[in-house]
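Repro:
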Amino acid sequence: MEKAVKVLRIIGECKTGGTETIALNYYKNLNHDLVGMDFLFYGPSLPRFSKELEANGDKVINVVDYTENLVGSIREIRDVVKDGKYDIVHAQLNALNFFPLLGAYLGGAKIRIAANHSTANMKYEPKKSIVKYLVRPSAGMLATNYAACSEYAGKWCFGKRALKNGKIKIIHNAIDLSSFNYSDETRQTVRSKMGWDGKFVIGHAGRFTEQKNHKFMVEIFAKIHEKCPEALLAFAGDGHLMDEVKTQVEELGLTDSVQFLGVRFDMNELMQGMDIFLFPSLYEGLGNVITEAQAVGLRSIASDVVPNEVKMTELVDFISLNKSADFWADSILKYKDGYVHKSRHDDLQRAGYEIKSAARDLEKYYLGLVGRKM
């Protein structure tokens, strides 16, 4: 059946992380009679939802990684766009959007969305940030439209004027709230299963990269553990820094109090068993795991560079990265004696983070770009 609008969404490298998860959330809730959506990834990896796309007549497309062959990747995207006759190409490579959108432009795409989900921090990650700042002016050069996961991310990439003039479409990192529904029974089950009974559990979910600041988390936890021996730190995720963090944990004698859980697809349940969610990122476009934490009533302690837009309830505390590990530890230990856990769906729904409503909004946005109505 002919779809009302045909979209190519360029994700980047296929990783088991926030970007892929949000894309899947939206895809599951789109009206597939209205929107046909193919996904393009750099490199050979396939996302975990490739079969779901095939069932709806959509597909996953892989092109050569731009880090291996930039010209080749642009040419392959050009050919994909030309052959696919897409109405819209939606690229989300942040400051690097110029390159996939060049391929889209050469392939004849009339509507080209540059989407940004990230920022930078010169103080804590100078080399990577310098590259971002150098390429940022080109991010929207070949775009006909801008999008971002937050006003902060949109302003960082495309400028204050574009945000003020309403030229940036905010596409929230919405979630399926029905999957993040707190219950005392789930909390008890998770804590028993994970060996968390009687523990003060501090959790984190994210790739082991410099941005997420895992080593500082271990420093904070070492201070917490000195004052609260029953404290436990649980890391979910993987990444290139995992071995270094494991070594740090061993050197501090914390091996028995730190869990490395690997990639998890049950964070909606694991978060219910935690007491604190720790998120001292060096920079963020938003920080959608904090959205998930709030949905199940889990308190988050985040760095002050995380956009304030993520605070949809009183369950988020911001602390400066200039503060010591001791200060962070004491701020976390304030909640050692517990607090009331309950779902906060109404707050998130009012803020636009309920996936069904957000998916309808995205459909309307796409159809509006091609001059069609729902």
